[in-house]
Each structure stands twice: as C-alpha cells, then as structure tokens.
Design goal:
The protein has 152 residues and is of the alpha/beta class. The protein has a single domain, classed as D-tyrosyl-trna(Tyr) Deacylase, Chain: A, CATH 3.50.80.10. The chain has helices spanning 39-51, 66-69, 101-114, 146-151; strands at residues 2-15, 19-23, 26-32, 53-56, 62-65, 72-77, 120-123, 130-145. Strands 1, 2, 3, 6, 7 and 8 form a six-stranded mixed β-sheet that branches. A two-stranded antiparallel ribbon has the order 4-5. Helix 3 (101-114) links the parallel strand 6 (72-77) and strand 7. 33% of the residues are buried. The mean pLDDT is 96. One of its GO terms (cellular component) is cytoplasm. This is D-aminoacyl-tRNA deacylase. It is found in: Cytoplasm.
Length: 152
Amino acid sequence: MRAVVQRVRSAQVTIDGQETRAIGCGLLILLGVAAEDTMEDARLLARKCAELRVFEDGQGKLNLSAPELGYEAMVVSNFTLQADTKKGRRPSFIRAAKPPLSVEAYHLFVECVRSSGLARVETGEFGADMQIALVNDGPVTLVLDTEEWKRS
C-alpha cells in the first residue's frame, strides 16, 4: 500500500464534475492499494499517515501532528500510485488491487484515519473521476510504502 501525503493549507476534490468536498489546514492523502496488501497494512499505514509530525512547533521544527493541532484530512483513492514504469513509456497497473480488496482496504484506511483524532476527514469517491485542487504548505510531501517497511 502506498500513500502520498501532502501538508496542505487547503484541498478540495470535485467528484464527477458535480460534488465538491473540501478541507482547510491538514493533510491530503492519496492512497494506492496493491494486490498483495492486507487489512493490517491499511491499519498501519492509516495510523502512520494521520500521526505524521509534519507541522511546525514553536521552534520551527516539524514536531506536531494534524490531530494535535485540530487539523483535517482528505483521503483520495489513486490506483495509479501502484504503476510499474520499469519498461517502456506506458505504465502498467497490474500491481494495483482490484475490487473487492481495493475497496475494502480503502474504506478501512479511511475509517482508521477518522478514528485518529483529526477534526474532520473528507474523502473522494472510490473509482470516480476526480479533480483535486490544493495549496501545498511548505511544500511538504512524503511517500509512505508498506512494501518498503516489509523489506526493512
């Protein structure tokens, strides 16, 4: 399971050109589920993402988390994070999980992020056409990958 976490001043997602959901200061989390991922991967990654200390304390050090500051999060599914680009120029998405695993892992991830103490958690819509607008703060952007954790 792979997540791209961005510290944002604001973010919004428009779903199928219709509904818009938005957050203020907090985290934008793009989530890609791989075919070999487990529900435990979803739990661990959700906790890690929500509790990342990527906000500055009084001394300017990245020492505070979004829940500590009462910030928000937005979670958006993104199967393209599992792209394999080793060969040629066309990405392969064979590693990306298919339903029902991808849907179940995404929903569990969101549930775990919601239980982390954030002020509010918004989501995209799994499988929908979405446009995301954000104001990246810093910029602070991190990539977390459970596969890398397993190799360590």
